[in-house]
TrEMBL record:
It comes from Hypsibius exemplaris. The keyword Cytoplasm applies. Pathway: Isoprenoid biosynthesis; isopentenyl diphosphate biosynthesis via mevalonate pathway; isopentenyl diphosphate from (R)-mevalonate: step 2/3. Keywords: ATP-binding, Cholesterol biosynthesis, Cholesterol metabolism, Cytoplasm, Kinase, Lipid biosynthesis, Lipid metabolism, Nucleotide-binding, Steroid biosynthesis, Steroid metabolism, Sterol biosynthesis, Sterol metabolism, Transferase. GO terms for molecular function: ATP binding; phosphomevalonate kinase activity. The keyword Nuclease does not apply. One of its GO terms (biological process) is cholesterol biosynthetic process. One of its GO terms (cellular component) is cytosol. This is Phosphomevalonate kinase. It comes from the Eukaryota. It is found in: Cytoplasm, Cytosol.
Length: 204
């Protein structure tokens, strides 16, 4: 059963990152956090509560699911299926869990590092300043970072659910032939211009 979303605590800006596996979403998110500062910003990983709840339900090591690549890949397929069942019951289930708690509510800038489905974008669109960012990366660069196509994962909704979106607010190219720092500086400038009411979070 779907539970009504609580928007009683609004961040001043929500940055939503989307991209393929090994495109560098976590890298970009960490750079954005460094630019804004942890005193006003936080990274929200929608996969965090999914991994936590899946680990509890299946008696797995949660820390390994977060940090050990081989362990995570071993369970990825089953975890995606399990998480999708929860999402079908309530499309905002994982978004709501990821943003619960005072540590999130107290931050002016939310950096959502891993939006994967249209329902993720819908969940956050009610906030006053939402900037949707697509992280693009060519396949050779992704392969250098460890990407190997896996049937049932890379052709599933968890990786392809937002491929049809064409109206991203910003597209950041994170391929190896680009200067990542310059690309991020351009993004920061765009954020400042787009969300002019960001106030103390201004980094220009």
């Amino acid at each position: 059963m779907t539970t009504e979303q609580d928007h009683s605590t609004n961040p001043q800006v929500v940055l939503i990152l989307s991209g393929k596996r090994k495109s560098g979403k976590d890298f970009i998110a960490s750079k954005l956090l460094l630019k804004f500062g942890e005193e006003i910003a936080t990274i929200i990983r929608l996969s965090g509560p999914l991994k936590s709840e899946y680990a509890k339900a299946h008696s797995l090591d949660f820390d390994h699911l977060l940090s050990a690549e081989a362990y995570k890949e071993q369970h990825r397929g089953a975890m995606i299926t399990w998480g999708e069942e929860k999402r079908q019951q309530d499309p905002s289930h994982w978004c709501r869990l990821a943003t619960a708690g005072q540590w999130v509510a107290s931050k002016k800038v939310w950096i959502v590092s891993d939006a994967r489905r249209p329902s993720d974008l819908v969940h956050f669109k009610v906030y006053p300043h939402v900037i949707r960012i697509r992280v693009e990366c060519d396949e050779p660069t992704r392969r250098k970072r460890g990407y190997v196509f896996t049937k049932g994962i890379d052709d599933s909704d968890s990786e392809c659910g937002l491929d049809g979106v064409t109206d991203w607010d910003y597209v950041l190219n994170n391929s190896s032939d680009r200067d990542a720092e310059k690309e991020i500086e351009k993004l920061i400038a765009f954020v400042d211009e787009k969300a002019d009411s960001i106030g103390d979070a201004d980094v220009a």
